[in-house]
Design brief:
The chain contains twelve helices and two strands, in the order αααββααααααααα. It is an all-alpha fold. α1 packs parallel to α8. It starts with a helix and ends in a 5-residue tail after the last helix.
Length: about 290
């Protein structure tokens, strides 16, 4: 899993996707896959008893489990529901892009994600760094920020900094706020000055950047974890793998999954998108004739 890339992806997407898209929806989409899983993956203690998933990797990414939350199909369905409930294409598209970014980023650890569930349960994984959730939150952090996982986060931070204009107040006022009226409603409801609203918008970037620095310092200055920048590292934790698979199996899963995704998108649009669009066209006079 990624520790900070998901936070930084939101700003890079906001900068480079050339469509009307809600930043808040992208943020919600990136959070969506882990919102019901992270607590149980690491577990917690009550009265000296550990409570959590008995098999964190299967629970988090597999089936049976909640691994479907990291599939591309889940993103389409979530976006369709949002479109149906809000009649807002900027939110529907934002949730879709954010969730897909999360699912594709998590392909890089050793467990990977079931990208094409339910059409296939094949895990797609580059195996760049070890999935180490079984080590607990602190053990996972030490492993991640001692391996190529930490390098991945730093790379995303660099990309976000190269897109620094997305963090400016002018960009927020001219691009971000106009794409989502919720910013204006939030400001009016609580009487917030412009500077506070812009600070709220920048907060998740600051959180992601500070998270990288803090956990890296903790892992190496406090825990004295050794560096291991080899592919699939680090060596000092138990690496959890999704299991060996062949190129042929992945190719078949991709073919079947692509067809399934296309059909899911078509049905979702028919049920949730097209009726909304027809209603909007009729309302503003752009329907036929």
């Amino acid at each position: 899993m990624s520790w900070a890339a998901h936070e930084l992806e939101c700003y890079v997407i906001q900068r480079h996707v050339r469509l009307r898209i809600s930043y808040l929806a992208v943020l919600a989409g990136t959070l969506l896959p882990d919102v019901a899983t992270k607590l149980w993956v690491y577990g917690f203690s009550v009265g000296g008893h550990h409570i959590g998933a008995s098999d964190p990797a299967r629970f988090h990414r597999g089936w049976p489990g909640l691994g479907f939350t990291h599939s591309l199909t889940f993103g389409i369905i979530a976006a369709a529901v949002v479109m149906w409930r809000t009649s807002d294409s900027a939110w529907g598209l934002g949730v879709l892009v954010g969730q897909w970014a999360h699912a594709l980023t998590d392909v890089n650890d050793s467990v990977g994600t079931m990208l094409f569930f339910p059409f296939s349960t094949e895990h797609f994984s580059t195996g760049m760094w070890a999935y180490a959730a079984t080590e607990g939150r602190h053990g996972d952090a030490a492993a991640y920020y001692s391996s190529l996982g930490g390098v991945w986060d730093v790379a995303w931070l660099a990309v976000a900094l190269l897109s620094w204009r997305v963090l400016t107040a002018d960009y927020f006022r001219t691009k971000v706020a106009p794409a989502d009226g919720r910013w204006d409603r939030l400001q009016r409801r609580f009487g917030l000055p412009d500077v506070v609203v812009v600070a709220v918008y920048r907060a998740y970037f600051l959180y992601g950047a500070c998270r990288i620095v803090a956990w890296t310092v903790w892992a190496h200055a406090v825990e004295r974890s050794p560096w291991d920048l080899s592919w699939g590292g680090p060596w000092f934790v138990e690496r959890i793998d999704a299991g060996a698979t062949s190129i042929e199996s992945l190719a078949v899963a991709t073919g079947i999954g692509t067809i399934g995704l296309a059909l899911t998108a078509l049905v979702s649009w028919r049920l949730c998108g097209a009726p909304w669009r027809r209603a909007g066209d009729g309302a503003d006079g752009r329907s036929g004739g």
